[in-house]
Design the sequence.
């Protein structure tokens, strides 16, 4: 009875498959990382736009609240600022009397939603005798 003994050199059997597996695995991992980055970017940009718009709305509401307070009381001012909370956003509102010039009142409202901030500035002309209030400007300004 004769025995046939076949000898293979150690490591030769899987030598051709290893580079192919490594290359395919690398391509798959690269595609997964790229897909995750694109999904993250798309979701964050939508959320950022939403929070930016919410911050603007909160800032406008804070400025309108201050204008209403000046209309009700011609001598109203608050240089320390007060906080107005709307939903998840907050507005820091400052009212400065005779700020740009005598007879005018400046309202500055900074709205914050999550990490986004927007600033609204309004200038009012207040008649000290009659109490008449005229809105001169109401604009978004850069922070």
Sequence:
């Amino acid at each position: 009875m004769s025995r046939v003994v076949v000898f293979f050199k150690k490591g030769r059997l899987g030598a051709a498959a290893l580079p192919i597996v490594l290359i395919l695995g690398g391509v798959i991992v690269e595609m997964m990382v790229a897909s995750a980055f694109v999904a993250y970017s798309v979701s964050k940009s939508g959320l950022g736009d939403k929070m930016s718009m919410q911050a603007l709305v909160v800032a406008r509401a804070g400025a309108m609240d201050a204008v209403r307070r000046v209309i009700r009381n011609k001598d109203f001012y608050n240089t320390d600022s007060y906080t107005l909370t709307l939903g998840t956003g907050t507005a820091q509102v400052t009212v400065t009397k005779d700020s740009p010039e005598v007879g005018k009142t400046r309202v500055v409202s900074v709205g914050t939603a999550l990490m986004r901030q927007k600033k609204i500035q309004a200038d009012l002309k207040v008649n000290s005798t009659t109490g008449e209030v005229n809105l001169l400007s109401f604009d978004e300004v850069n922070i």
User: Anything to note?
Assistant: The chain has one helix and five strands.
